[in-house]
Amino acid sequence: MPLNVPIFLTWLRIAMIPLVVGLFYLPDGWVPARDAIAAVAFIIAALTDWFDGWLARRWNQTSAFGAFLDPVADKLMVCAALLVLLDLNRVDSFIALIIIGREITISALREWMAKIGASGSVAVHRLGKFKTAAQMVAIPCLLYWQPIHGVSLQWIGRVLIVIAAVLTVWSMCYYLRRAWPEIRSRGV
Known about the structure:
By secondary structure, the protein is mainly alpha-helical. The chain has helices at 5-23, 34-58, 64-87, 93-115, 126-144, 153-185.
């Protein structure tokens, strides 16, 4: 396993998951700024997602392991945060199911397409990037939950998570449609 700054940042993102989740297992009042700390930790983790990819390309430190670990870290981070938000009744179970189900489905599809040598047909598309951006803004808003300067982060988070869910279904349909010719040609 190569170890460089981009992969270190990806591992850091994975290590932050227990911090975000753990904050919500502490008894109420133990951490007065719990929601703010969780939101900031999630934002830092989301920024490392962008930054590790940028550094890997810029410093020519891309690797097969990094290409594998980065999306796994993203999915773990988003799924863990959604489960916390579900437990707090800050996100609807149907929305969480759509997002988590899509992540599992597309991960499995990409793995299968790579096995048959057709991974290019399900390469990351900008639709998936828009979905990710909506999630990465919605989740910290929902974690923090309080208004800032009269702006309702709760409302912003709820609107964005619905947009993320719609983009989730749309992008899943896009990837499945792209993979369909390969699936049909193999008689699956």
